[in-house]
Specification:
2,3-Dihydroxybiphenyl 1,2-Dioxygenase, domain 1; 2 domains; 24% helix; alpha/beta; four-stranded mixed sheet; 8 strands; 123 residues; single chain
Length: 123
């Protein structure tokens, strides 16, 4: 068996990123390390996202993170009500129906849900 179980991204401030992913996307803190500064954040399915600082390196976002939520329209309203700015409100995008926002370091975050993808996201 082969399965992807974690992903690491480099960030400018591990604590700020940890707090952002926990507050807005509901990830849970699995553990933290201090040298280098990093946090392991886990989603509801057990997938771990590592956010870690790289000393003396500029952060250059190099991937897109897609998060499945229960209802993309509801999650969009919840986050915008909490002051989160979206790059794209829920709509039909090239990858299906969803919404897109940027994290504090500029990583693109796609939000989607199974029902909307099936009902609104087809080509």
């Amino acid at each position: 068996m082969t399965r992807l179980d974690h992903l690491a991204i480099f960030v400018s401030d591990a604590r700020r990123s940890r707090d952002w992913y926990m507050k807005h996307l509901g990830l849970k803190l699995e553990f933290e390390v201090t040298n280098p500064k990093a946090a392991a954040l886990q989603d509801d399915a057990g997938f771990t996202l590592f956010v870690g600082e790289r000393p003396n390196d500029a952060v250059s976002p190099s991937c897109v993170l897609y998060f499945q939520v229960d209802d993309v329209d509801s999650k969009y309203r919840e986050l915008t009500d909490n002051g989160v700015k979206f790059d794209k409100a829920p709509q039909r995008l090239f990858w299906g129906y969803g919404a897109e926002l940027l994290d504090p370091d500029g990583y693109r975050i796609g939000l989607w849900d199974e029902h909307s993808m099936r009902e609104k996201g087809g080509s």
